[in-house]
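Input record (Table S2, row 237):
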Amino acid sequence: MKWFKNFLHFFFPESCKICQKPLKDEEILVCGNCFKGLPFIKIYCSRCGNPLEEALIDYLLNKSISYCSYCERQKFYFDKVFIVFSYKSPISDWINEIKFGKDFVLAYKLGILLKQIMKEKLPEVDLIIPLPLSLKRLRERGFNQSFLITWGFLGKKPFDKFLHRILHTKPQAELSQKERWKNVKNAFLAKDEVKEKSILIIDDVMTTGATLNEASKALKRKGADKVYVLALARSTF
Ligand SMILES: [Zn+2]
Ligand SMILES: [Zn+2]
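Output record (zinc ion complex):
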């Protein structure tokens, strides 16, 4: 993909997306200074990705729990969740630029940034895939932002034939928390090839985790060994 990188350099001069300062070679999207100011998520449940209340922090630090009250109420099929940012500006603005402004380069670069931040923290897996959209939604929107982020993360086009979204469901954002779990029920189908594989699913924004959970369920039902989730950002419901 070196030609693609050169292509990007040529058409999109590399300057910090926030302060416009020229970027150094190892800096991606933002300069070192602006990077420190990004809304990194501080503490969240490593089992389900739920951002924890301040009051819980002490408890967590002392007892090192790997579940929260949300996990206790809800069965999750994924094994572990990794999240980088809170869904706050500028991350939330950038995700909107991708979704509504079709800024594909931004999605790709966020994928590279995600890799740079997380590469030491993620478990070894056999397969890294984006969370799929339904065919209908893909046609309406023309692209899957998670696919583009995963493309940047991998540095190559992701293989996305092992997990399909077979049901076209209402956008989760229009629904209440309870309705979201019902809405995506059995929306995914995985291929037999995922058997005994460890898989990482990449998504842009995780909210209740309902959609990612259904995707994980489909993978586990076909015998996937481990399913991990990596979300760029977590928004609170
Ligand atoms: Zn900057
Ligand atoms: Zn939890």
